[in-house]
């Protein structure tokens, strides 16, 4: 089932055909599905390559950002990030751009792939600190680098009340949505961050982190790359176990207002995802519910 109203039908046969047409030297490499997120469908190509195809026309800008900025950000990061190797053009078979990257070994963080959650949280904090220290190189919060999560909490305010209302009949029996909405509004009432604008990954959910050898090994999918205030960057730590959250907080030495605004972002993003993906992406809905449950447990 499509996740979005304007989604392209994408399968392995289509991916193989566009690769074969554009890069005939890769035509004999095996191609197999490698999962997908809300914006892209992915296929592993041979041993060393990954094909990413946007689900919708709006996903193209994210790939362009990665192709422009990943080579410029990589020297400032110890962690592996996506390495674009080919820009695929639109065609009759598939009407928008697509990209090919180097394959990165690893798997999302789970109890099977991470053996020390405190160390994992510190690893993630180290990546965030490095990314936020990289010079902006003239980039500004404008155009494709002005995604809403780098702004203030008032940007998503208009759709929060409808999202809470739509979520109540869906998950109101398992989550204390009144309490979560109170916390969201408390965060909204805080002054916006006065921190300087920095580079933001924008979506550090577990699906965009790769663990290998028990530790964080790579951060992927920079489609939400933007410039802005750092508050929302910290929201995804509620997707990780408490030991990882505590280590992350300690490593970055975050003050309480920043943490409360980050919690507000964590609530807002999750509550928005529940009704939007309820029928189409139950795995993502489960992530959102688990994040909100973790926030409630933290108190």
What does this structure look like?
The chain has 299 residues and is α+β, with helices and mostly antiparallel strands. It folds into two domains: 12-102, Phosphorylase Kinase, domain 1; 117-298, Aminoglycoside phosphotransferase (APH), C-terminal lobe (Aminoglycoside 3'-phosphotransferase, Chain: A, domain 2). 40% of the residues lie in helices and 14% in strands. The protein contains eight helices and nine strands. Strands 1-2-3-5-4 form a five-stranded antiparallel beta sheet, with helices on both faces. A two-stranded antiparallel ribbon has the order 6-9. A two-stranded antiparallel sheet has the order 7-8. Strand 1 (31-36) and strand 2 form a beta hairpin. It is globular, with a radius of gyration of 19 Å. Residues 33-265 form the Aminoglycoside phosphotransferase domain. InterPro entries: AGP_Transferase, Aminoglycoside_PTrfase, Kinase-like_dom_sf. This is Aminoglycoside phosphotransferase family protein.
